[in-house]
Amino acid sequence: MRTPKGRIAVLVVAIIVVFALNFPVYWMLVQSITGESMFSERPSLLPRDPSLKAFRRICEAKPIGQWFINTLIVAVGTVALSMPLAAGAAFSLSRYKTRLNSITGLAILGTQMLSASLLAIPIYVLFRRTGLHDKLGGLIVANTAFTLPMSIWVLKGFFDGIPKELDQAAMIDGCTVGQMIYRVIMPLVLPGMVAVSIFAFILAWDEFFFARTLVSSQANWVLSVGLSSFREEFTIEWSDMMAAAVLFTIPPIVLFMFIQKHLVSGLTGGAVKG
Amino acid sequence: MRKASPNAATTGMICSNSAMTRASAALILPAAIIMGAVVIYPILTTMGLSLTDAPLISLSPPSFAGLSNYANWLSNPDFWHSLWITLIYTFGVTIGSYAIGLITALLLNMEFPGRAILRGLVLLPWAIPEVAAVMTWNWMLDYQFGVVNSLLGSQVGWVTDSAMALWTVTMVTIWKQFPLATVVLLAGLQAIPRELYEAANADGASRLQQFIHVTLPGLKPVNSVLVMLLILYTFKRISIIYLLTGGGPARATEILPVSTYLEAFKYFRLGSASAIGILALAFTFLITLVYSRLFLREEA
Questions:
Q1: Nearest-CA distance from A70 to chain B in Å?
Q2: What chain B residue is nearest to A29 in terms of C-alpha separation?
Q3: What 8-state DSSP symbol labels residue B96?
Q4: A196 CB burial (10 A radius; 0-12, 13-18, 19+)
Q5: Which residues contact B287 (CB under 8 A, 6 or more apart)?
Q6: How far is A61 from chain B (nearest CA, A)?
Q7: Neighbour tally for A116: CB within 10 Å
Q8: CB contact under 8 A, B139 and A31
Q9: Chain A contact set for B238 (CB, 8 A)
């Protein structure tokens, strides 16, 4: 494969494979800008009489703006709630081996076995009793149930990558634990923190199941619920639905592109080390 | 930063051990409490509910029903059908995600121009929100106007034909999940020392032999964890099936998490739903336990 010819051959194969696997993404885009001719016997693979009409239609017909803001509130709130907790826990798990830490570590693994449908039942009951039901704040708390373990897990990998000698050096120089974390460790782990925050943001942005179960009034819907509601209508306007899907997809995709490298090393770091 | 405050008092030249322990506890406690609230509390509550006949809407005290919910499920053929479907789905998705992940990882591990861009693009299915992805598949798989039937020249009811629906949801889930396998396997491939390939080359090993004797053993450390993750993530997945088929047609795709959800939020039987949720959790736990005994122990 070292020959230029071989490399080009691999490139061609790789392009074909990667683009074939991404066909649904392409199709979503194409269909969102396809005009009235969607329902034809042979759909065209290229956009036919492209227009942005579908985007305008959904913005007029649906409270997309409100859903967008709700989703943003939930995603930002989830990050704001889970990140400080995750950073402290991840640092503690990375540096100390106490009994509390090993129990928490096990609980983190345990969350990986819980399906959203199992969690939804007790959370629903709890929220009905406490009045958190149908509130965006409640949804933020519920989303933390799965962003927190993931954030702790990946952040621990970043903390593990910082040599312990640095902590000790800071301590000998007279730092308290708090100062040591704030002045020495945090600056080093900042890129990791940013990456994990963005990943948590994407998870909360995409979340559908709790949003569907715990929030009922349409004014409090998030985009994932709003989007799924298109399907329940009598006649599905597919180009409208694809336009809504594109709007919903843009923020996470853009963010994903930024953190892709960090995310990959963070996740695989955790996976490789077990 | 908030974290600084609990230990600000312990100023000293060198931090003592007890201060360290206190620091570690103070740092993990908030998260540990939340983890308890979102993991242990829900499990206990669900177990409690599973012993009652609680309905969803009325929150009047439900009456104790003992183990009757469990007995009902375990003697119900629908439950065993759901369990069977769950196993087929889980193993199908795991094998499929692994296979496509391995192919793409091997391909993207070769040297060619533009490799970084393609490595990013291959992860797109993962980055797309699940709901948006499923809506797109819904449209692509439309019986009459969908692009899949049109391109294949077929007349398949992908999500409406009960013989086909399970394979359809398996396929869509594989599509959504394979990038996780790609990422982990790519990291695994990069961890294999190049010298091993050079030595194999010098010994005159063919490409296939190199793959069998160098690449596959080299992936072993990531394999066991990756397969575990794939099984766990698939076993509890719900949104794809819920949005694609709703568990139908005629329960053909009703895996256990979907049954749990429908029982609770469609038929409003919380007690019964809790029982099936706990049964599903027990099976997940059993599989995890057996798997980790078989494959994870040697590395620990």
A1: 16
A2: B136
A3: H
A4: buried
A5: B231, B235
A6: 19
A7: 24
A8: yes
A9: 115-117, 209
Distance from CA of B182 to the nearest CA of A (A): 10
Closest C-alpha among A158, A155, A159, A183 to residue A169:
A183
The pTM assigned to this predicted structure is 0.89
DSSP conformation letters of B22-37? HHHHHHHHHHHHHHII
How many whole angstroms separate alpha carbon B217 and alpha carbon B227? 15
B216-275 residue pLDDT tens: 999 988 888 899 889 999 998 899 999 999 888 988 999 999 999 999 999 989 899 999
Q: Is A242 in Cβ contact with B139 (below 8 Å)?
A: yes
Residue of B186, B230, B297, B263 whose CA lies nearest to B94: B230
Residues of chain A numbered 49-68 and touching chain B (CB < 8 Å): none
Contact of B148 with chain A, judged by CB distance below 8 Å, is answered with no
SS3 (DSSP) at B249: coil
B264 at the A interface (CB within 8 A)? yes
* Contact call for residues A98 and B25 (beta carbons, < 8 A): yes
Nearest CA to B235 out of B84, B129, B87, B39 is that of B87
Return d(Cα B273, Cα A115) in angstroms, integer.
13
**What is the per-residue pLDDT across B168-209, written as a single tens digit (0 to 9) for each?**
999 999 999 999 999 889 988 988 888 898 899 898 888 899
Q: A235 in contact with B at a CB cutoff of 8 Å?
A: no
Closest CA relative to residue B233, chosen from B166, B161, B180: B180
Q: Kindly list the residues from chain A whose CB atom is less than 8 angstroms away from the CB atom of residue B242.
A: 209
Predicted confidence band at B1 (pLDDT cuts at 50, 70, 90)?
Answer: very low
Whole-angstrom distance, CA of residue A214 vs CA of residue A262 = 32
Of the candidates A25, A95, A231, the beta carbon closest to that of B124 is on A25
Residue B39: burial class (beta carbons within 10 Å; 0-12, 13-18, 19+): buried
Q: Which residues of chain B neighbour A198 with C-beta distances below 8 Å?
A: none
Residue A216 in contact with partner chain B when CB distance is under 8 A = no
Q: How far apart are CA B75 and CA B29, in angstroms?
A: 43
Cis peptide before A252 (omega within 30 of 0): no
Inspect the interface and report whether the beta carbons of B243 and A208 lie closer than 8 Å: yes
Q: CA angle A163-A169-A173, nearest 5°?
A: 155
Tally DSSP H helices, then E strands, for chain B: 16, 0
**Shortest CA distance to A244 belongs to which of A255, A257, A232, A228?**
A228
For residue range B65-97, list pLDDT tens digits in order: 888 899 999 999 999 999 999 999 999 999 999
Question: Would you call A2 an interface residue with chain B, using a CB distance cutoff of 8 Å?
Answer: yes
**What ipTM did this prediction achieve?**
0.88
